[in-house]
Design goal:
Number of helices: 3
Largest sheet: none
Low-confidence stretches: none
Number of domains: 1
Strand content: under 5%
Radius of gyration: 16 Å
């Protein structure tokens, strides 16, 4: 592969990490936050609104971080792994509430 091709693959992977990994991370964050806030006796719709507002800021932050981080592997690990862990934790919290 030429340097130009590797550069394009690297850029495409960064974009995918920012979009897909950022989405997974943010989805896990929002689900966990809503579950924790509801468990703390906040009204569900208030917790949902706060979760979505903060989720927008989190997505913007992780999307920008995906392009500024040195290691692409670390970006994928943090975003996909963190999203999976937070989604699992949110599932446990929500299961305890029901």
């Amino acid at each position: 592969m030429t340097a130009s091709t590797l550069s394009r693959v690297h850029l495409a992977s960064r974009i995918a990490a920012g979009m897909l990994g950022g989405y997974a991370f943010t989805w896990g964050f929002i689900a966990l936050l809503i579950g924790l806030l509801f468990a703390a006796k906040m009204e569900f719709h208030d917790a949902e609104a706060l979760g979505y507002i903060l989720g927008f800021i989190v997505f913007l932050g992780v999307f920008l971080w995906a392009f500024s981080a040195r290691s692409l592997a670390r970006v994928w690990l943090v975003l996909a792994g963190g999203g999976a862990l937070m989604s699992g934790a949110a599932w446990l919290v929500q299961r305890a509430l029901v």
